[in-house]
Amino acid sequence: MSAASIDRTRLRTLHQREEQRFVAEHPSSAALAKRANGSLVGGVPMTWMMAWPGGFPLFMDHARGARITDVDGHEYVDLCLGDTGAMTGHVPAASTAAITEQLGRGITTMLPTEDAVWVGEELTRRFGLPLWQFCLTASDANRFTIRLCREITERPRILVFDHCYHGSVDETVASLEDGRVVARHGNVGPPVPLEETTRVVAFNDLDALERELAHGDVACVLTEPALTNIGIVLPDAGFHDALRSITRQNGALLVVDETHTISTGPGGYTAAHGLEPDVLTIGKPIGSGVPAGTFGITEEVRDRMFARTDADYIDVGGFGGTLAGNALSLAAIRATLEHVLTDDAFARMIPLAERWERGVRDVIDSHGLPWDVQRLGARSEYWFAPNPPRDGAEAASFDDPDLSAFTHLYALNRGILLTPFHNMALMSPMTTEADVDLHTEVFGEMAAELIA
Ligand code: PMP
After folding, report:
1. Atom of ligand 1 nearest to the CA of 83
2. What is the pTM of this model?
3. Would the pLDDT of 2 be above 90?
4. Less Cβ around it within 10 Å: N or C end of the chain?
5. d(Cα 277, Cα 15) in Å, to the nearest integer?
6. In the beta sheet, which residues pair with residue 227?
7. CB of residue 284 inside a 6 A radius of ligand 1
8. Cβ-based neighbour number of residue 245 at 10 Å
9. Once rounded to an integer, what is the mean pLDDT over residues 439-451?
C-alpha cells in the first residue's frame, strides 16, 4: 500500500464525521470562539492557534500534570505539552511553589538574584558551556546569539539547514529552492532578500556545508542537533564531528539550539553525544512554562565579545531586553532544573516515549500502513512514509495535511491532544503508561477505520 492509496473519499467522510462530533461536544468552546472573533485577530490570542483541528480551538479551563480540561469539562491526555513549553507537565508542584514565593518577593528589578548564579552553575554542569546569559524565549536566545556571532567574527551571514526552525528570527526563515537561498514560503515581511543574510544547505550534506563555508563570510552555523520541526531528522553517523571540524577550519562559530532536543536527556543532545558548540541556545520548557530563554558561551567567545570595545552590550546596542534575566524567570528555571526536569525524570520519560513508539509501530505494522515512527529521547513522531528522511526536503515531502488533520482530530475527540504542527508526542515527568496506552488504542482504532 502507498500513502496515496489511502481512500481519500473515505478520509474526507470520516473527517466530516469527526468535525461534526467535535462541534457537537464543544458548545462552550464554540461560543467563546464566536465571541473571540469580535476582538481577537482570527479569533485567537496568537494566529498560530488557528492551526488546531476542528474549525475552532478548544478553550482551556485548567491544566495539571499531563492533563488539560477544557471549558466544556472534557479532560485530555496532553501529548502536545505546549509544543515543549510544558514538557515539565503543567504546574509542577516544586516550580509552582518557587514561582509563588518569588511573586511575593519581586518579579523584575534590573538586579541579579542568587538564583541566577545557581542556574548558571547548573547549566554549566549540564551542557558544559561555562558562561550564560538570559532572555525570555528561544527566539530571543537565537536572535541575540546571531548578533553576537556577527559582531565578533565581523562576518555578515549565518548558515542554517533547509527546513530548520529557530523561532521568529529574520535570518533563519530561509529555504533552499533549486540551489538558491530564498525567503521561506510564507515568510511574513522579510526585511531583505534572504540570500543577503543566510546560506542554506540540506541537513546531513557535508559537501554542501564545506562548499558554503569556504566563502569565508559565515559568522555562525545555527542548527538543532537533529531537525525536529519537520518531523525528526536524525544526523548521520559522523555528521556532528564533521560539522565541528569544518566550522573550526572555516572560522565559523557553531551554535546548537537545544530547545526541542532537550528531549534527549538532562543535558540535551549536546551532553548525550559530547558536542562542543561555541554557543548553546534553549528556551521553552526551562521555566516550567514561565517565559525564559538562555544561551551559553565559551570563555573564548566571552573574551572576543568584550574585546569589541565599541559594541554596546549594555544600553541601546540591540543586545538583550529589559525583562531579560528577571527574578521570576530565574526562580522558575532554578526550580525546573533542580526539581522537575531532573535525571530521574528523564529516566521515566524516555521509556514512556519508547512505549509510545512501540505502540505506534505495532499499529502501523499490523495494518500494513506505509508509515514510520521516529524517536529522540522523550519525543516521538510518526509520519506518512515508510522510511526515515535524511534531510528536511525529504521529510517535507512526507507531509500529508489531510491525514494529519484527521489523525489529530480523531485523537482529540477521544481525549488526546497532539501538537497541531507535528504528529508528535512528548512525555512529561507526570505522563503515565496508561496515558501512552490510551493513545495506542485510539491510534489503532483510527487506523482500522481508515483502511476498513
Ligand atoms: N528553536 C527551536 C528549535 C524551536 O523549535 C522553536 C519553536 N518551535 C524556537 C527555537 C522558538 O521558540 P519560541 O517560539 O518559544 O521563541
Report:
1. 8
2. 0.98
3. no
4. C
5. 45
6. 233
7. yes
8. 10
9. 97
